[in-house]
């Protein structure tokens, strides 16, 4: 397929494969074969359902959004768990069910060559929880369930017996509002909300996107899309979809002007299409990630804090970060956990 761009593009097999994987999820495979096309100025925006219109991000009403429960003293697979704890139920069941992303390259995504295999920073941490519960072979007892951002809260509270998950390892930002809906581990990563545009975009800053009335895409249920309806960004047209790879396809098609999301997510999208996308400098908010658990199982969050503490101390956190994000995001050290949150009364 021929485009009107004057730049010659060389696409390697691995580069093409990664892009095809992203676009397959939204049925836009043709783009992988012809690269990013030139887009007429009057290309219509993607039209989301009015019923799915995002609501503004609630203003903070607490000062301890990143404070979690005190960790339990041990995590070894030989440790006996209290019989009514979720970790005891998981061990008895013989599998840990984790809600993850299936298309966030570097964080959590399917291996294009082995669709049943998941890779990424969040995946490494989930496997560490599996090993803590079940011992050295615990990796094989972790069942990954692909979920959307909007499904994180309802599915983690539903429980496995009702079709839900035991925990969510899907770049979920800890904030005051979400603490009323779920329980969280301590912070395991802090990202920043940024913007990704086509490399031929004339808008190279948030101010330029606002001034241009840019169509900005992000997943439903994310803090990223909620920020876009804040009055300070009046002029931006929020476009809400199911997942970030849908946003990538729409950006390549010219149906949106930018994608907003966590620096980790945008690094993965940029890696899928490095020749035709770029991440803009600057950020508009921090995104502290926590592993989410059911609201009524704070003891599992305490257990996860013990696992996370050992995961960081052993160097596994650093090794995973260096493997996935050091090149894109630079050097980074593990976050310092904050404990002391009161256990809710049962």
How is this structure best summarized?
The chain is of the alpha/beta class.
From the helix content, strand content and strand pairing, which structural class follows?
Answer: alpha/beta
Shape: globular
Separation, N- and C-terminal Cα atoms: 62 Å
Compute the average pLDDT: 86
Overall number of strands: 16
CA-atom Rg in angstroms? 20 Å
Approximately how much helix is present in the residues? Answer: 25-40%
Largest sheet: 6 strands, mixed
> Helix tally?
13
Strand proportion: 15-25%
Order of helices and strands: HHEHEEEEHEHEHEEHEHEHEHEEEHHHE
Q: Which regions are unreliable across 5 or more consecutive residues at pLDDT < 50? A: 1-43
Secondary-structure topology with pairs:
Elements: H1 13-24, H2 30-34, E1 67-68, H3 86-93, E2 96-100, E3 103-104, E4 108-111, E5 114-119, H4 121-134, E6 142-146, H5 152-158, E7 167-168, H6 176-179, E8 182-184, E9 189-198, H7 206-211, E10 215-219, H8 223-227, E11 237-241, H9 244-253, E12 258-262, H10 263-272, E13 277-279, E14 286-289, E15 292-294, H11 298-313, H12 316-324, H13 326-329, E16 338-339
Parallel strand pairs: 1-16, 2-6, 2-7, 10-11, 10-12
Antiparallel strand pairs: 3-4, 4-5, 8-15, 9-12, 9-13, 9-14
